[in-house]
Design brief:
Its main location: cytoplasm. One of its GO terms (molecular function) is caspase binding. It is found in: Cytoplasm. This protein is mainly α. The chain folds into 2 domains: 3-87, Death Domain, Fas (Orthogonal Bundle), CATH 1.10.533; 98-179, Orthogonal Bundle (Death Domain, Fas), CATH 1.10.533.10. The protein has 12 helices and no strands. It has helices at residues 3-14, 17-26, 33-38, 42-51, 61-69, 73-85, 99-108, 113-120, 124-133, 138-153, 159-168, 172-179. α7 (99-108) packs antiparallel against α12 and α8 (113-120) packs across α11.
């Protein structure tokens, strides 16, 4: 699944009716009036913008301008995070995988995994992508989020940081099991 499309879908679902109307108005110079009248969702508007190549995963300045205009700084922030994290990392930056702690965390964390990931510094955008990619498996969401954290941190992904984050989230039993 294309991460950029996932991001646009996330944006679409968070837009109110009045925000969609504002976006349609702002696009009048770029999209024909008839096409705009048929648009009933953010997804439909984004599809037209993609078709006309006004937005692409590599060129988001038009989209950013639209979001700034409707005062959705939260979405602008997510978009900027997406652009920053979209860079391909070199193979030597790949982390050493600590499978045992991942296994222990996955078996014991449960629905509070997002709180843990926030303590570890993983972005909301990445967590949303993980949930979208694995909607029916809580355990897979935890596994993928921990792997994403390891990939992001590279060699700096330390088990001690994971234990500290678990303790900060009051998950002391899980932290104790990871230490063992």
């Amino acid at each position: 699944m294309d991460p950029f499309l996932t991001l646009l879908h996330s944006f679409s679902t968070s837009l109110s009716g009045s925000e969609l109307s504002s976006l349609k108005f702002l696009c009048r110079g770029k999209i024909g009036k008839r096409k705009l009248e048929l648009v009933e969702s953010g997804g439909e508007l984004f599809s037209i913008l993609l078709e006309q190549q006004l937005i692409t995963s590599a060129e988001v300045s038009f989209l950013e301008g639209l979001l700034v205009s409707i005062k959705r700084e939260d979405l602008v922030s997510q978009l900027k995070q997406f652009v920053e994290e979209g860079e391909v990392k070199a193979p030597e930056d790949e982390p050493d995988v600590h499978e045992k702690p991942i296994e222990v965390v996955c078996e014991n964390v449960g629905r509070d995994w997002k709180m843990l990931m926030r303590k570890l510094g993983l972005s909301e955008v990445k967590m949303d992508r993980i949930v979208t990619a694995n909607p029916f498996s809580l355990q897979e969401q935890v596994v993928q989020s921990l792997r994403e954290w390891q990939k992001w941190k590279g060699k700096d992904a330390k088990v001690t940081d994971l234990i500290k984050a678990l303790r900060d989230c009051n998950m002391n039993l899980v932290a104790d099991r990871v230490e063992q």
